[in-house]
Write a sequence for this structure.
């Protein structure tokens, strides 16, 4: 959940920088879980109305469900797009490579392959390695950073 919130709150429309595989796939997992919960809610609402054949008699239910789905997907279009571009940056590709996804049949497969590739080690033109910067932040917070040896003063 921390990765999902990081994307949705801190990096909502951030197209610069890099995103780790962990950030990308944890966001995708949480997105999938919420989609399944909305689908479950949809089925429950229709089953509770008792009219699964004639959807027009329960127009308010249709409107509520359609509104939930539209709001959910509208809220996730921009951060999902930005996250994918940051993930492409992490493997050393430009964000323009995302246009490959529009190639029928193979475009999304290519983006999938890019998303599972390990990121470039060290800094690249889009910023520092997020894996290294996250590790050094954790060390500083927990106090595990090695102290530099003190220089002896000669008298």
């Amino acid at each position: 959940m921390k990765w999902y919130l990081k994307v949705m709150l801190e990096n909502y429309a951030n197209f610069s920088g890099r995103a780790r595989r962990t950030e990308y796939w944890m966001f995708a997992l949480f997105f999938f879980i919420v989609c399944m919960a909305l689908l479950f809610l949809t089925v429950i609402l229709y089953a509770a109305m008792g009219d699964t054949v004639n959807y027009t008699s329960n127009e308010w239910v249709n409107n509520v469900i359609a509104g939930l789905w539209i709001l959910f997907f509208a809220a996730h279009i921009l951060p999902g797009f930005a996250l994918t571009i940051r993930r492409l940056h992490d493997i050393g590709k430009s964000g323009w490579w995302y246009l490959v996804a529009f190639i029928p049949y193979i475009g999304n497969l290519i983006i999938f392959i890019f998303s599972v590739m390990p990121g470039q080690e060290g800094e690249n033109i889009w910023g520092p390695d997020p894996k290294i910067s996250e590790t050094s932040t954790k060390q500083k917070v927990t106090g595990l950073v090695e102290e530099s040896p003190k220089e002896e003063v000669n008298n």
In short: The chain has a mean pLDDT of 80. The chain is about 60% helix and 0% strand.
